[in-house]
Write a structure and sequence with these properties.
CATH architecture of the largest domain: 3-Layer(aba) Sandwich
Mean pLDDT: 93
Strand order of the largest sheet: 1-2-9-6-5-3-4
Shape: globular
Radius of gyration: 19 Å
Structural class: alpha/beta
Distance between the termini: 48 Å
CATH topology of the largest domain: Rossmann fold
Number of domains: 2
Helix content: 40-55%
Low-confidence stretches: none
Strand content: 15-25%
Number of strands: 12
Oligomer: single chain
Length: 334
C-alpha cells in the first residue's frame, strides 16, 4: 500500500509494506549523504538492515525512552551532524519509535534551516500515529512537546515486520492510537477491535489509521481546526503521563485512560472499556484529581482558562468542545 500525503509545501509517499525496510535505499533513491538517527532500544537486526544499505553513513544512537526527548539530546544530534559535515543536500533517516522520529525530525528541521528527512517507524505507536503529520518536538520542564517545529518528511517507510521484536506491552501501547482514530473518524476501524480476530487485521488497522491521519493533516496541517480531533484522549492523557513520570505508564496507555476520562456517552464508554480490556490497556487510574487538573491547565493546548476538548457522542464522529478549567475540574470530581 502506498499512501500519498499532500501538504502545502510538500508531497510525499508513505509505503506500508512488509519487508520494505530491506528496500529503503532503492525507494529513497537520492544522491547525497545519509545521517542515521536511532536509539539503543531498536533491535540490531533492523539497524543492521539499514546500515547494510548505507555502509558509509554515520549513526547517532541515544538512550531509549521519553527521558531523552529534550534539548540536550537534540543538541548532541546537531553537533554530531556538524562534526560529520552533513550538508543541506544530505538526508537524516530516523529509525525507531516516536521519540526517535521527534528527535531526528526536529534536528532535520533545525539544521541549516531544514534538510531532507526520512522516517522509518519501528513501533506500533509510531507506525499508526506519529510517523506522518510533520509534528516534531522535545519536552521542556515536564511539558510534553513544548518546543519543536512542523517539518514534513520526504518519505515514510512503514514495515509491520519490525513490530515482531516489540514486547507485548509496547505492541499494545501503540494500538490505543488506532482505537482513538476509529472513535473519532472510522466506526468500522473501531469495530475491528471488538472482533476476536482483530490481530489478523493488523496491516489493515495500520493502513486505515494512517489514511485517517493523512486526511486530517491535509486539511489542517498546523492544527488550527480539524487536526485537533487527533488529540482525543490526549488532554488528560498527557496529564497522566506527566503525573506518573517516565517510569509509569506509556503514552498510549495514558491516552487510553484519557479517553475514558473525557468520554461522557456511557454506551461508548462501555464499548471502549471492553476494547481496552481486550487489548490489556488501562482504563482507570488513581491520579490525584487536583494535580491532574493543574497539569491540564499547563497543557500547551490550554488558552488561559479555556481548552479545546475532543468529545465523541457517536462512534466515528469526533467533535470539538470548548471547556473552561471549571469544566475540567468537574469532570475530575472536584
Amino acid at each position: 500500500m502506498v499512501i500519498n500525503v499532500h501538504t502545502k509545501d510538500r508531497e510525499y509517499p508513505v509505503y506500508v509494506e512488509r519487508g520494505v525496510l530491506k528496500r529503503a535505499k532503492e525507494l529513497i533513491g537520492r544522491e547525497g549523504h545519509v545521517f542515521i538517527v536511532s536509539d539503543d532500544g531498536v533491535p540490531a537486526v533492523w539497524l543492521d538492515c539499514l546500515k547494510e544499505q548505507y555502509p558509509e553513513a554515520p549513526v547517532h544512537i541515544f538512550e531509549n525512552g521519553e527521558g531523552s526527548k529534550n534539548l540536550h539530546v537534540w543538541n548532541e544530534i546537531l553537533e554530531d551532524m556538524l562534526e560529520h559535515n552533513v550538508s543541506r543536500n544530505d538526508t537524516v533517516i530516523a529509525l525507531g519509535g516516536g521519540v526517535v522520529g521527534d528527535m531526528a525530525g526536529f534536528a532535520a528541521a533545525s539544521y541549516m534551516r531544514g534538510i531532507h528527512y526520512i522516517n522509518i517507524p519501528t513501533t506500533t505507536l509510531s507506525q499508526i500515529d506519529s510517523s506522518i503529520g510533520g509534528k516534531t518536538a522535545v519536552d521542556l520542564k515536564g511539558r510534553k512537546n513544548c518546543v519543536g517545529a512542523f517539518w514534513q518528511p520526504d518519505m515514510v517507510l512503514v514495515d509491520p515486520d519490525t513490530l515482531s521484536t516489540l514486547t507485548p506491552r509496547h505492541f499494545r501501547n501503540g494500538l490505543a492510537e488506532a482505537v482513538k482514530e476509529g472513535l473519532i473518524k472510522d466506526a468500522e476501524l473501531f469495530e475491528l477491535f471488538e472482533s476476536d480476530e482483530w490481530k489478523e487485521h493488523l496491516d489493515e488497522i495500520i493502513g486505515r489509521s494512517l489514511i485517517i491521519k493523512r486526511d486530517v493533516v491535509e486539511k489542517d496541517e498546523r492544527e488550527s481546526g480539524e487536526r485537533k480531533l487527533l488529540n482525543f484522549g490526549h488532554t488528560f492523557g498527557h496529564a497522566y503521563e506527566t503525573y506518573y513520570g517516565l517510569n509509569g505508564y506509556y503514552h498510549g496507555e495514558c491516552v487510553a485512560m484519557g479517553m475514558m476520562t473525557v468520554l461522557e456517552n456511557e454506551e461508548i464508554r462501555t464499548r471502549l472499556k471492553a476494547v481496552l480490556e481486550k487489548l490489556d490497556l488501562p482504563f482507570e487510574n488513581d491520579a490525584d484529581p487536583e494535580e491532574t487538573a493543574r497539569l491540564v491547565r499547563n497543557d500547551k493546548k490550554a488558552d488561559h482558562d479555556k481548552i479545546t476538548i475532543v468529545q465523541v457522542q457517536k462512534i466515528g464522529q469526533g467533535i470539538l468542545e470548548e471547556w473552561t478549567m471549571a469544566d475540567v475540574e468537574r469532570k475530575l470530581g472536584l
